[in-house]
Amino acid sequence: MKKFLLFVSTLLLLPLITSCVDKKLEFVGTSENWDVVYEVTIHAEDSESNGLLVKYIGEDPPPQEIDYQLSSGEDGENTIASGNRISLIRSGVAEVANSSCSGCSITFDFQKFNATIEWNGNSESMVLSNE
Asked: Taking a C-beta distance cutoff of 8 angstroms, is the pair 44, 29 a contact?
């Protein structure tokens, strides 16, 4: 009987325990010269943190600086993050747009994002999706 009660109590507590676990989403996009990863960690139904990783994958030497824009919406009309003159570190990699919010609308796994990278007079755009 004790084993049965332990089993039942575990089943009842399992949803409560698992609801406290953060959910991680990764939206990925690639262009000719860039890999972009937008990572989102959902902490609660109205709380999340995120970060953007930009990596140069082109054949020429990586640029010193980039401009970037991350947006959502069908036409990219909702800018989420942007930056100018961002320095690339560690072999052409930049970690940008780290932020968090509480009391906000959270990101859903089916969403798509648009990323645009500009450097040395060049520009490339890509769509980021959850893989």
From this structure: no
What string of pLDDT tens digits covers the 131 residues of the chain?
555 555 545 555 545 444 557 899 999 999 999 999 999 999 998 899 999 999 999 999 999 999 999 998 766 678 888 889 988 877 889 888 788 888 888 888 899 999 999 999 999 999 999 97
Q: Domain containing 39: what range?
A: 22-130
Instruction: List, in order, residues 6 or more apart from 2 with CB less than 8 Å away.
Output: none
Q: Roughly how many angstroms between the first and final C-alpha of the chain, as a whole number?
A: 45
- 18 secondary structure, DSSP code: H
Q: Judge whether 1 and 8 are in contact, CB under 8 Å.
A: no
Domain count, the chain: 1
- The answer to whether residue 14 sits within a structural domain is no
- 15 within some domain: no
The reported pTM is 0.79
